[in-house]
Design a protein that fits this description.
Elements lengths: L9 E5 L11 H5 L6 E5 L8 E5 L12 E4 L2 E3 L28 E7 L3 H6 L7 E6 L8 E11 L10 H11 L26 H5 L3 E14 L2 E13 L6 E11 L2 E2 L4 E2 L2 E10 L1
Parallel strand pairs: 4-7
Antiparallel strand pairs: 1-6, 2-3, 4-5, 6-7, 8-9, 9-10, 10-11, 11-14, 12-13
């Protein structure tokens, strides 16, 4: 895509805008960063898909999600089978959650009809262009970024335990004495014998998140290269939820015949698990 082809409204985000931010997904970088782009998380699960609208919905029954293009290649939605899902199952993940934010060089958002002219009907809802970092051909440089985080519920519900609830029900109606009957022996028992449990302790937990990213950037004569590895693990505050992502990227940009022929080779591996 050439800049002269982008004649309409275009918003651009450079990597410098979110280098010092803690981002687990590209969705986080886009949220609140582009005028006219609305990003809403479908749930609080780590790695869950986000719904995105560029200047509102333009369809009542069809998809309103913008087209995502990574280094010139359109990405299909991995969250559902209708958008190119994995083996026909709903993975609960979006294409953006599989991209490591540390590998991104820039993001351009095409917001009007010019996107349709370039990409056809796939770009009718707008286009998000993502360009990843490439080798610069300078002296070798190794960079390592890491993050550890901790999160918990902001507020817990103040609820009765079972003893308080049983006493309340008996106080309201004496016929509720069956609440103090042992279900196995059918013998009466006192309030002190009733075992109480806070189900919030059984459902929620303090969650730990970590992210690691290492990259090697350099060049050998006419062969600039960049190699990166990333690992992300994010627990949800609900005990049955977590998200893991492993990414690997290799970029080679050799030049031949006194820079008259330039070749760009990019290979990426993304593996994500959402529970």
């Amino acid at each position: 895509l050439r800049k002269k082809d982008m004649t309409g409204a275009v918003a651009s985000i450079k990597a410098d805008a979110f280098e010092n931010r803690v981002l687990f997904s590209v969705d986080d970088a886009l949220a609140g960063g582009v005028a006219g782009l609305m990003v809403n998380s479908s749930s609080g699960k780590p790695g869950s898909e986000s719904s995105m609208l560029i200047r509102g919905a333009n369809s009542l029954t069809g998809s309103t999600a913008p087209l995502i293009v990574l280094d010139g290649f359109p990405l299909f939605d991995v969250s559902t089978s209708t958008g190119g899902g994995i083996d026909g199952y709903d993975t609960g993940m979006s294409s953006l959650s599989m991209i490591n934010p540390d590998d991104i060089a820039s993001i351009e958002v095409l917001k009007d009809a010019s996107a349709t002219a370039i990409y056809g009907n796939r770009g009718a809802n707008g286009v998000i262009l993502i360009t990843t970092k490439r080798g610069r051909g300078d002296s070798g440089k190794i960079q390592y970024n890491t993050y550890f985080g901790f999160q918990q519920m902001n507020k817990r519900y103040d609820m009765m335990d079972f003893r308080q609830y049983a006493a309340y029900q008996v106080d309201r109606n004496s016929s509720n004495n069956h609440l103090f009957t042992d279900p196995i022996t059918m013998q009466p028992r006192t309030i002190g014998d009733v075992q109480s449990r806070d189900w919030q302790d059984e459902i929620f937990r303090p969650a730990i998140s970590t992210d690691h990213h290492v990259s090697i950037n350099g060049g050998l004569k006419n062969l600039p290269y960049r190699i990166s590895l990333g690992y992300n693990y994010n627990d949800g505050i609900v005990k049955t939820s977590n998200f893991q992502r492993f990414t690997a990227s290799v970029n080679l940009a050799p030049s031949f015949f006194d820079d008259h022929l330039k070749v760009n080779i990019t290979a990426k591996y993304m593996n994500g698990k959402n529970r």
